[in-house]
Design brief:
mainly beta
Length: 119
Amino acid sequence: QVQLVESGGGLVQAGGSLRLSCTSSGRTFSRFDMAWFRQAPGNERELVAAIYYAYHNTYYKESVKGRFTISRDNAKNTVYLQMNSLKAEDTAVYYCAAGGIRLKRADYWGQGTQVTVSS
């Protein structure tokens, strides 16, 4: 069983920055693909960014490219999402996910953290 705990959400003005963190329990973190999803009210959950355990390749949703950066620290069992130049449309609940990452699914989920961008 993998437990994921997110932190770092909050309220920020448009153009500002936030860094989300997600810490995982268990000793096999380094072997998991990790990702951040988000879900805005009335919308489906969507994959925002992913980082793969092999070679640390990354994927980004087109609308966040150049603004968001996903990274991981295997020694700390933690994955990060640095979000810069935030826009009102980035407002959503952000979920950390691990394993079996696809566009709309993952094996394990965190509880979510709210990000609100005021315009």
